Hints:
Elements: E1 3-5, H1 8-17, E2 23-27, H2 30-33, E3 46-50, H3 55-68, E4 74-79, H4 81-84, H5 87-95, E5 102-107, H6 113-125, E6 130-133, H7 137-141, H8 143-152, E7 157-159, H9 163-166, E8 171-172, H10 177-180
Parallel strand pairs: 1-2, 2-3, 4-5, 4-6, 6-7, 7-8
Helix pairs in contact: 3-5, 6-8
Amino acid sequence: DVIVTTSSRMVQTFQAASSTIPIVGTTGDPVALGVAASLPRPGGSFTGATSDAGPEYYLKLLAVLKEAVPTLSTVGFVATPAFWGSPLALAMREAAPHLGIQLIPSLLQHHEENDYRNAFGVMAQRRVNAVLTHDQSEFFTRRRLIVELAETNKLPTMTPFLEIVEIGGLIAYAQDAKKQLRYPSSSGV
Length: 189
């Protein structure tokens, strides 16, 4: 009857597959993604909330990472080429020097295990002080691999997923998705 998702990519996929099934989701900027006409009047089959806090969110990730690693001067940023070229990434790249940080991209063409291994290998060779990952759902899916690669390469790594800390990751700055998606039951439990 209805599709519920928290992935921008899934919202786009479901909307392309059906214009009649209602889709409720949390996405990045739904207007920029092309799934909504506007925030107040999305139109079409999609409605929901945006998880996109804008450039301030990504700047906060860098600031928290700098606070955790005070000697931080270089940060490897693992992301997709699409995000690296986005206005949000541009704002982050422009603000990083004000925090005394140089951002070094490691762009993933795909989300296969070898892509992540290569990205972390490049970051270790470039001797970055820490690594930051993007918040795409694929990074969440690969969180165990990210923790393994961070430990293997001795790279403090920050992700926008709280769950990464639960499995041994160093630091995360994010909303609690479990609480965000929790709905009270009719029994009040």
